[in-house]
Amino acid sequence: MTTLTATPEVAAVAGPGRETPARIPFTRVLQVELIKMVDTRSGFWLMIGIAASALIATGAVIAFAPDDQIVYDNFGAAIGVPMVFLLPVMAILSVTSEWSQRSGLTTFTLVPHRNRVLAAKAIVAMVVGAVSIGVALAIGALGNVIGAGIAGVDPVWDISLSQALTLTFANVMNLMIGFMLGVLIRNSPGAVVGYFVYGFVLPPLTMLLAELNGWWKDAQPWLDFNFAQGPLYDGQMNGTEWAHLAVSGSIWLLLPLAVGLYLVRRSEVK
Amino acid sequence: MIEVSHLSRTYGGLHAVDDVTFTARPGRVTGFLGPNGAGKSTTMRVMVGLTPASSGSATVLGRHYADLPNPGREVGVLLDASAQHAGRTGRETLRIAALTMGLPTARTDEMIDLVGLTPTEASRRVKNYSLGMRQRLGIATALIGDPEVLILDEPANGLDPAGIRWMRDLLRGFADQGGTVLLSSHLLHEIEVIADDLVVIGQGRIVAQGTKAELLAAAGTLVRSTATTELSQALTASGVTVSRSGPDLLRVDAEPDLVGKVALAAGVALTELRAADGAGLEEMFLDLTADTAREGVAA
After folding, report:
1. Which of A123, B116, B174, B278 is the most buried (most CB within 10 A)?
2. Domain containing B17: what range?
3. B82 touching A, CB under 8 A?
4. Which residues of B153-192 are buried (b: 16+ CB within 10 A; e: fewer)?
5. ipTM of the complex
């Protein structure tokens, strides 16, 4: 530390004549929450991790895929899949770090309305989800052109617009799952473990259960959120499938989110 | 100006804060003094809306904290220096605060300079900071919005003696320019040298409050003499309370000049006569919190 010099100059002048500052606009809370998502060590390495795995996966498709697999869908997936897995962790940490790192003591005293802060975090998570799919599709297109050039085949564009839209929707929903787990659990390790159970342990178990239990096999589309999300990735959703998604999503996403938001409003920030 | 009115916070059956009322005034440093677990931090958290009150209220600059449009511009808050994101650099932490308040980010470097962190230190992550450095960063965050009220919970913790001296001067300067300072401490001597007003809390209840001068005066006079018995009788006869503090030492609940006059009238020679401040405040603190402190009275 530097040697402390004489009495510091504090420009604090109190009393009459001071203007009451304007209310913090919501756009500024949004901007701050976006920066906070990426300016930490964990945020930085998550971004690096996503970029590196996307690069490796694209390279692997070019290097190892047979010529008839050099298609846009595979390049899009090579970049999109790491994002789909890792971006929800960013949404989780953006919420849980306020409690686990205790930075909420500052955040919630500078913006003393938890709803505003959480709404900003949710919107940022959704925007990140939508933009990242756009980035994945753009880089995937580049990979497709280069890959087809190297393999000496014509590029195959096999992702339709409707599929791109449902993919975007699925990714945004994934980030909201992360946000929900963060709000509900409010502890970084706990919520990340919760996310892996939610996304990677439960799905095979529910599939196994469907093999063994006839009642569950019939009810699965309505009650199994992960199962109901499947058609989103194929890009063809009919009315029944949207209904499956709405019902299972209400149980697995909206209900726990409501509980989490209620708890956050009442909890103490320590 | 901070006004706390009949504030209570209970946890189950535990009264962490019990009917606390006090005012911190502009231009003065108000010391919030109490042993560990007395309810200081809970009171401060309720003030800034991090903990809901069970009953009663607290206002800052005449408003509930949550109604301040941009709180950082009016109230600087440091509740716990270790509650900062370990994965962010010091500079980034300040930049986030400046952005939230709508300040130019140039303010960041001014603050780093003000609190005595070097540019290199500011570029390191908070994870690598000592408690003293975190304390400085926390103070920078509290001051960056150029507030007129400061609420600081144990800000001297972890600071070295030069740092404590620096902070004392900083808070004195802030109050002299008309700012309101509320700072808590469990360290008597720290509070004693800086505070104008004192609020003493024990087990959630306020046990004493007033200006430092008043509370010191209440601590009385120490008088030493070889004839303590005669002196004690003479003082008691003149209507003041006397207690024996040592073989030749009396503690008297009166001003030194009165004690001197009584001694003169009684013809008793004194070997020492002084106001019981300094040690007196400590005695007062221990006395006042004796029935509530967890250690009880050692004597």
Report:
1. B174
2. 2-210
3. yes
4. bbbbbbbeeebbebbbbbbbebbebbbbbbbbbbebebbb
5. 0.86
Find, in chain A, the residue whose alpha carbon is nearest to that of B47.
A109
Q: How far is CA B218 from CA B24, B109, B207, B213, B291, in A?
A: 21, 46, 14, 9, 19
Top residue of B54, B85, B111 to mutate, by most chain A CBs within 10 Å, is B85
Regarding whether B153 and B15 lie in a shared domain, the answer is: yes
Mutate to test the interface with B, among A38, A110, A270 (most CBs of B within 10 A): A110
Mean pLDDT of A93-102: 95
Scan for tokens 């430092």, then name that residue.
Answer: B212
Domain ranges of chain A: 26-198
Asked if residue B218 has pLDDT above 90, the reply is: no
Lowest mean pLDDT among A16-20, A130-134, B110-114, B199-203: A16-20
**Average pLDDT value over all residues in chain A:** 89
Distances in Å between the alpha carbon of B58 and those of B129, B150, B261?
33, 15, 47
Residues 130-159 of B with CB under 8 A from A: 132-133, 136, 141, 143, 146-149
| Contact residues, chain A, for B86 at CB < 8 Å | 101
Assess if residue B238 is contained within a domain.
yes
What local confidence, expressed as pLDDT, does residue A6 receive?
A: 42
Q: Where residue B219 falls among pLDDT bands split at 50, 70, 90?
A: low
Q: Residue B290 domain-assigned?
A: no
Distance CA A96, CA A37 (A): 11
Same domain, yes or no, for B52 and B143? yes
Chain B residue numbers with beta carbons less than 8 Å from the beta carbon of A32 are 96, 99-100
What would the pLDDT profile of A130-147 be if each residue is shown by its tens digit?
A: 999 888 888 889 889 998
Cβ–Cβ contacts within 10 Å for residue B106, how many?
8
Average pLDDT (B117-137) is 96
**Does B220 touch chain A if contact means CB atoms closer than 8 Å?**
no
Domain at B146, CATH number: 3.40.50.300
CB contact under 8 A, B100 and A113: no
Examine residue B196 and state whether it is found in any structural domain, yes or no: yes
